[in-house]
């Protein structure tokens, strides 16, 4: 299974997806020395566009497994089958955004990925920003980091939003890996500490991404509500 995922990742990185991403935005990658060359690690990034996960995987130079929303695996017809094959081949994990047992199962799978020495990528906001601002993070990344001992590396992504580049200018995407969060504490199961560490994670990313922070959870807006700056 791992061999298949690595082969699929290499195919996408060097032939199918990677060259198009580089051509589209010439990504600038900063702080890659904060990402371990091997062993388990959690990459937690802000979320402005559907392309964020692709650029994060491109910058990491190692296969990255994400929790992909279950909708991507449930679409019908030829396009749906192709989409499902693509995500499963790359080892992505379907997650039920409604929470409950489905979400818990996905987090258990994330723990398995880390136990096997892999990289788990997550956007703690839970969905793309509807207006380019950063929203309150959900606590899953910190919980899994405490459970597994895997380093939790914040990642600030900029330039992927819909209007990130002024008209007529070439887009430039930046992916900045930041120092791993320090999660040492007396009681790593304390809910207050988990919430505090998650808030610190989001503040660290926000400082580098240059976004405005909103202390509430993001929601999926309707088309009429959506800001013109939405990704």
Can you offer a commentary on this structure?
Helices cover 40% and strands 16% of the residues. It is built from eight helices and nine strands. It has helices at residues 2-16, 18-25, 52-60, 71-74, 77-89, 101-115, 140-148, 191-209; strands at residues 28-30, 41-45, 64-69, 93-95, 119-122, 134-135, 152-158, 174-177, 213-214. The strands form two sheets. The chain has a seven-stranded mixed beta sheet, with helices on both faces. A two-stranded parallel ribbon has the order 6-9.
Radius of gyration: 17 Å
- Contiguous runs where pLDDT drops below 50 for at least 5 residues: 222-231
Helical content (DSSP H or I, runs of 4+): 25-40%
Question: What number is the mean pLDDT?
Answer: 81
Strand content: 15-25%
Query: Biggest β-sheet: count, sense, barrel?
Result: 7 strands, mixed
| Structural class label | alpha/beta
Q: What's the number of extended β-strand segments?
A: 9
Q: What letter string, H or E per element, gives the SSE order?
A: HHEEHEHHEHEEHEEHE
Q: What is the overall silhouette?
A: globular
Number of helices: 8
Strand order of the largest sheet: 1-8-7-2-5-3-4
Kindly, what is the distance between the CA atoms of the first and last residues, rounded to a whole number of angstroms?
33 Å
């Amino acid at each position: 299974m791992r061999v298949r995922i690595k082969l699929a990742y290499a195919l996408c990185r060097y032939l199918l997806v990677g060259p198009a991403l580089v051509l589209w935005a010439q990504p600038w990658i900063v702080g890659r020395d904060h990402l371990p060359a091997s062993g388990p690690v959690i990459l937690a990034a802000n979320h402005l566009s559907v392309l964020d996960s692709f650029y994060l995987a491109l910058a990491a130079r190692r296969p990255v497994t994400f929790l992909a929303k279950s909708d991507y695996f449930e679409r019908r017809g030829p396009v749906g089958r192709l989409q499902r094959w693509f995500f499963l081949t790359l080892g992505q994990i379907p997650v039920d955004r409604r929470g409950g047992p489905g979400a818990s199962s996905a987090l258990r799978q994330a723990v398995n990925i880390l136990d096997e020495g892999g990289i788990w990528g997550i956007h703690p906001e839970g969905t793309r920003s509807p207006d380019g601002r950063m929203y309150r993070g959900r606590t899953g990344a910190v919980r899994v980091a405490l459970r597994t001992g895997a380093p939790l590396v914040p990642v600030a992504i900029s330039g992927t939003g819909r209007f990130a580049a002024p008209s007529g200018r070439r887009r430039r995407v930046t992916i900045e890996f930041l120092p791993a969060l320090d999660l040492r504490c007396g009681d790593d199961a304390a809910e207050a500490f988990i919430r505090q560490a998650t808030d610190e994670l989001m503040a660290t990313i926000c400082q580098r991404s240059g976004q405005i922070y909103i202390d509430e959870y993001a929601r999926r807006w309707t088309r009429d509500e959506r800001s013109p700056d939405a990704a």
